[in-house]
Amino acid sequence: MADAGGRLERQSSDTTRSSTSEDARLLPTEQFEIEEPPSPGPSTNSPHPPGPPPKRHTITPILPSIQHLPIDLIQRLFPTRTSKRAAAASLLLLWLAAFFTPLILSTRPVRDSAGEYAINLSCVDTLFPRNSCGIDGTSCAPFANLSVPFRCPANCAPVSVLEPRPVGPQDVVYRPLVVGGQPHYRGDSFVCGAAIHAGIVSDAHGGCGRLTRVGERDSFPASDRNGISSIAFPSYFPLAYTVTEDPSIPCPRSDVWRLLALLATPTLTVLATLFSTSAPFTFASVFATIFAHTAFVSDPPGTSRHSLSVLPDLVSLFARRLLPASFCAAVIYRLSARRTLEGLTAQLEKVALWLAGFWFGATSNYTLDHIPIQRLTPHDLEQQPGAKAALAAIVAVLALAAGGQAWHLRAEGRLPLFARGYGALGALLLVFVLLPGVSLRLHHYVLALLLLPATGMQTRPSLLYQGFLLGLFVNGVARWGFDSVLQTTGELRNDGAFGSPVPEVLSVVVVPGNGSDNSIAFSLGGETRGADGISAVVNDVERYRAFFADGPEWANFTWEGRGGGQMDEYFRFAFISDGMVLDFSGTGTWLANGTYIAPEPK
């Protein structure tokens, strides 16, 4: 009994010591996360010796004495937690003043010498919107004798049309819609693109000018100026305009104010990353300030053209997107960024990898602008030159990065969990692809959310990948918002083709005359099921509409030549359904010598 009792006592004591020792070795709280699987202990029944236990990656700083200098400096200057919090609050207040004061001053309303407010334009504003001006363009009148001051934002030169836009005999796509040049531009040209081409405003900073409608013009020569190649149109158009400087408009020195706003956020993010070892503070301050920087400065969303100042629109869009983005940021931090940043004392590497990657992704409208992929849809990949090769290169880079991350996750013992999670995500995306009537769109923010969990470890590649993906998320949401992952064909089409039937030109009769008395008559036909009528466009302006219910005369269209035998004219035809103009036929050309050249079949 004594021996048994002694053995029992010793067993109890050993159990107590084991429990105490286990408690002493408890891991920090953040390791008890959903994604952290339990580490299996050695099995006495296993015929094979256990493998190496999972490990958690940590970065050992290169030249630690140098990388710890910012931490030591902060500790000497602000030795207490209260003093550190006061310093952080002061830094954020200084950023608010340095960022928003220039922003307010640079976006205030401006008026010309006559007291008329300058119209705020977006990069795609035009006087003659496509398919919106009615017969003969009357809805976009007046065509002449009107002059208004205007103001353009920065970064309008790269803004291009993403769907083929007819300009006479050619279809323009993936280039700025600027037709003609000094002294006048065609009425459907992007006004801010034309102002940059004319040298009136700067692409880097925007600016002010004066627009004057000058009525119909009959020649729009092309030219290369200030980084924009304009488009030639060798015929007449009912509306043309000029853009000129107007010294009476007190346009703010947006270059100075913009420079101050541009410097404020990078300075704060470098300080918050370099001098802080607090993962929550670094993550929250960098995320919030770069989000604001993107929404207001580097890639602001489009705003209302008739507002006196663009700032109220920008503030409204910023507030609308910040709250859901902040919720996403909290989840990202909990599941990914905390594991990467917490306990990291390699301050210079954190700036060079994580913060630099963040900025690279957040400014992707500049850094990735040369990649020939505008939208990740099958239509765009087929249409844009070089898009397939670029996509193949991106997929190869992603595959290499994924392989490296999988290796590190395996070392941490988390690869099976991630394999199951991404397998489930892949199955869900496949279901989305198979859903009828909608298309899967992997927006910037969606790609970031899908890939960020795999960066939740403290390795140097993870620092870089995580920063870049966070930047992509910020850029996508701050600029475009939370667009749906599933979008209908109409949403994706924008102003592109419907894929509808087009009218057939059955016969063409040219009636010669004297001077401008020439005329041309078309006999039209084709599959009319589902259509209500027909539309005829001459020189990219709708000139004729007829409906089937009015009788067989809809099939006959006669045009009295306005070129006077001096210039070519261009004809296209489309069916109408429910008041909407569907796809147009190819462009037929009536040459100045009276010859008609039919379009090539599509």
Automatic annotation (TrEMBL):
Residues 1-12 have a biased composition (Basic and acidic residues). Residues 169-232 form the LCCL domain. InterPro entries: CRISP-LCCL_domain (IPR051957), LCCL (IPR004043), LCCL_sf (IPR036609). Signal peptide: none annotated. It comes from the Eukaryota. Residues 1-60 are annotated as: Disordered. The chain crosses the membrane at residues 86-105, 388-409, 421-443. The keyword S-adenosyl-L-methionine does not apply. Residues 37-53 have a biased composition (Pro residues). Keywords: Membrane, Transmembrane, Transmembrane helix. Gene3D superfamilies: LCCL-like domain. This is Related to LCCL domain protein. The lineage of its organism: Eukaryota, Fungi, Dikarya, Ascomycota, Pezizomycotina.
